[in-house]
Design goal:
- By secondary structure, the protein is mainly alpha-helical.
- The chain has a domain at about 40-90.
- It has helices at about 1-15, 40-60, 65-90, 100-105, 105-120, 155, and strands at about 20-25, 30-35.
- A two-stranded antiparallel sheet has the order 1-2.
- Strand 1 and strand 2 form a beta hairpin.
- Residues about 1-15 have low confidence and may be disordered.
- Bound molecules: zinc ion (ZN).
- Zinc ion binds near residues 27, 28, 92 and 94.
- Zinc ion binds near residues 28, 95 and 97.
Length: about 160
């Protein structure tokens, strides 16, 4: 597992368009790689500008103001792609934990994890995957902490 992980990070370093960082699932603690980029940056805007310039030159054979539509369209497509890539990548493939959903609606996130783990329990391929460290749920103790005050200690009362 550790060797595979190292190899995949070496591969991601070669491909600078897909910059991923090592992260651990907040629930099952299995290491994986997630896309760091959430939104488009200056390089994407420049690439969209170049793409729009090439499209404009190919279609209109000269400088044309309608090229701005290509530019806006390419920006929209790249922003949508990058956001979707980040949003789908942030969900843990092992336990199904979705940190974004957890921040908004913890009950829904818990239900999703439960459904994912139930589905996983029926799948024999789970033995081939990495070992998860699912936190166990402890029943809440109903012992109330008594505030230390006068007359609490029996030895002092006598
Ligand atoms: Zn997980």
């Amino acid at each position: 597992m550790a060797k595979n992980f190292h190899q995949s990070s070496a591969l991601s370093r070669l491909n600078f368009f897909a910059k991923r960082v090592k992260a651990f699932c907040a629930f099952c603690r299995v290491p994986r790689q997630v896309y760091k980029k959430k939104r488009i940056g200056a390089a994407d805007v420049f690439a969209a500008f170049l793409g729009a310039a090439v499209l404009t030159a190919l279609i209109f054979q000269e400088f044309d103001a309608r090229g701005i539509f290509f530019f806006v369209g390419l920006l929209f497509i790249s922003e949508t792609f990058i956001q979707l890539r980040w949003r789908t990548g942030v969900v843990c493939p092992h336990c199904g934990f979705d940190p974004v959903l957890y921040v908004k609606e913890p009950e829904k996130a818990a239900a999703k994890v439960r459904a994912h783990l139930d589905k996983r329990a029926d799948d024999p391929a789970r033995f081939l995957g990495p070992a998860m460290h699912i936190p166990s749920r402890r029943p809440e103790k109903k012992t109330e902490k008594k505030a230390p005050g006068k007359g609490q200690r029996l030895s002092k009362q006598i």
